[in-house]
Amino acid sequence: MGSFHIPQSQNPRLYTTERSVLSQRCYGEDGVRIPRATLKEAQTALLEYLHSTRSIQFVDAENMSKNSPHFLRKLLKKVEIVKDVRRSMSRFLRYHPINEFEPFFESLGLKPCEYTPLLPRDLMFLSDDCLLLENYRVLCEFGVERNKIGQIYKKAVQVFQHDFGVLLLKLQAYQKLGLSQSFIAKIIVYSPHVLTGDIDIKFIKVLEILNGLGFDYAWIKEHLSEKEFYNWSMIFRVLKFFREMGCSSEIGGLISRHPRLLFEGSSGRVLSLIAFLLKFGLRMDRISSMFLQFPEIQVSHFASNIIRFFLFFQEIEMEVDEIGKIVCSYPILLGSCTLKKTSSLLHDLNVGKKRLCKYIQENPQELSKWGMGTRVRPLPDSGEGVESQKLKTKFFLDLGYGENPNMLKKAFKVFRGRGGELQERFDTIVNAGLAQEDVSKMVRVSPQILNQSKALIQSKIDILVNELGFPLSSLILFPSYLSYTTQRVRLRLAMYNWLKDQRKAEPDLALSTIISLSDKIFLSQCVNNHPSGPQVWEDLKAEFTRDK
Predict the structure, then answer these.
(1) Do residues 217 and 183 touch, judged by C-beta distance below 8 A?
(2) Name one GO biological process term (predicted).
């Protein structure tokens, strides 16, 4: 089969490696130790097969056999070893051709989980993809490290699909622009897309701007990462934006202190952050000032912290205008602090949402003390609680609960909200057109109807009267209507009206019966009265869920 003898003197060159890597290779994925001698013999057998049998160039075959430990371990599990590992492996490979792309991709620095999705579907032999091998060798000869070429393939497979001679011309084109071969060899690992089309003009412009600011190629290489994907057009936009913001004189110092502003996420996060701040009305000069004072933090974390504060302000029901004022006035403070959860803060501060909004507006600097890992102390008593208790007691007495301490205690547990809020909600129902005496009776029968906002109560009354066509007096007989969600009410009434049109429901069924029945009873006693009822019910549910 054309096997050949490798002189003993070549063995050290074939197998010399760092102790930690060799140690790692001596263990299978199941933790079972593979003797070092066995591994060496297996490498030799694989090298012989790839070079002599498959006619792969010696340098490439050697690289594949030495740098594909996962593949080699997997192969050893399939081979029945009879005395001599090398002979047993050679015999196995003679009758069981391997998928050569697996050890090839692994030798380029890719893990099995990375290269498995990249394996060609209908090919097993490297010689069947001559363009892949040609472009791979061009990169090797140009000075790209073999174990980095896998990252290029993973990020931009188009590089390996160029016709013969095209890739070399692209590399030489960048050299003619003044870029050194060593710099290009590094850059294409970080940003292989510069080789997929024509010369990337934005990439060249970025280099020119950075060089003009005093940053050499060594500095640029130092701050690039294989883990990132670089969009040079976007990076160019950020550099241009910094100039337009009026901080062109300080831009060099800014980039020197915070290179992440350019290279983290290809500056996309910076542009997203700027857009977010502009939406809140932050002026360009303030954004420029913010970047010049930018803290030692990743851009993504800074933006995430600001968004976290924004969501917190929404959760405590702060007015939009007030949120905008705080974001525009304290962007550095908000971006530098990772806020605790809203529920934790409300508990630790021992405060309600309204008072917390007011406190933040009066003391915005206190926000910096509420970050993750800090101990948050309760806010000092404002005296509002005592006043609220008085208003609540008066409200309960006016409802007719009397001065019985047990009744009052029970009322305090049932009703949620401050005294003023309860009165406001009560007045909302009265102002809709009902007598105060009737509303008092309604509240005593269904006290939970006041445990929702004034706006929600108004909305539910409007739906009852103007959308569903029921008289306002229906609330006197069925005050619990205000406790049900509008989605449930609309769904039940839509189903009832359909059944009524099909003559499968009583025409004058009470509103309380339609809405208050449990889903199980409503289905069995109403929906199932018509053969198509269950399907109509599901369709209506889907429709109302979509609308919601």
Answers:
(1) yes
(2) DNA-templated transcription termination
Q: Which residue has the tokens 């869920």?
A: 545
pLDDT in tens, the chain (548 residues): 343 333 333 333 333 333 333 334 454 555 556 788 888 889 999 999 999 999 999 999 999 999 999 999 899 888 887 778 888 888 899 889 899 999 999 999 999 999 999 999 889 999 999 999 999 999 999 999 999 999 999 999 999 999 999 999 999 999 999 999 999 999 999 999 999 988 999 999 999 989 888 899 889 888 888 877 888 988 898 888 887 776 666 788 888 888 888 887 756 788 888 888 988 888 888 888 888 888 888 888 999 999 999 999 999 999 999 999 999 999 999 999 999 999 999 999 988 888 899 999 999 999 999 999 889 888 876 555 556 667 767 777 777 666 556 666 666 666 666 666 788 888 999 999 999 989 888 888 888 888 888 889 999 999 999 998 899 999 999 999 999 999 999 999 999 999 999 998 888 888 999 999 998 999 999 999 999 999 999 999 888 877 66
How far is it, in rounded angstroms, from Cα 20 to Cα 280?
A: 54
**Positive or negative: CA dihedral 14, 20, 24, 27:** positive
Nearest alpha-carbon partner for 412 in 381, 388, 442: 388
Distance CA 299, CA 258 (A): 9
How far is CA 207 from each of CA 153, 185, 292, rounded to the nearest angstrom? 24, 15, 22
Q: What is the DSSP letter of 349?
A: H
Domain boundaries, the chain: 36-197, 383-468, 484-547
- Long-range contacts for 7-12 (Cβ within 8 Å, ≥24 apart)? 11/40
Phi, psi of 27 (to 5 degrees): -120, 135
The token pair that represents 438 in the structure block:
């009737």
Full 3-state SS string of 472-537: CCHHHHCHHHHHCCHHHHHHHHHHHHHHHHCCCCCCCCCHHHHHHCCHHHHHHHCHHHCCCHHHHH
CA separation for the pair 431, 15 (Å, rounded): 90
CA distance 442 to 428: 13
CA 177 – CA 35 distance, rounded (Å): 52
CA-CA-CA-CA torsion sign (354, 360, 363, 366): positive
As a whole number of Å, the CA-based R_g of the chain is 37
Q: Which helix (H) or strand (E) holds 391?
A: helix 384-399
SS3 371: strand
Q: What is the 3-state secondary structure (H, E, C) of 40-64?
A: HHHHHHHHHHHHHHCCCCHHHHHHH
* Whole-angstrom distance, CA of residue 203 vs CA of residue 186: 14
Half-sphere exposure of 175 (CA within 13 A, CB side): 11
What six digits make up the tokens of 532? Answer: 């198509």
Helix or strand or coil: residue 33? Answer: strand
Distance between CA 378 and CA 501 in Å, rounded? Answer: 59
Separation of CA 541 from chain center: 31
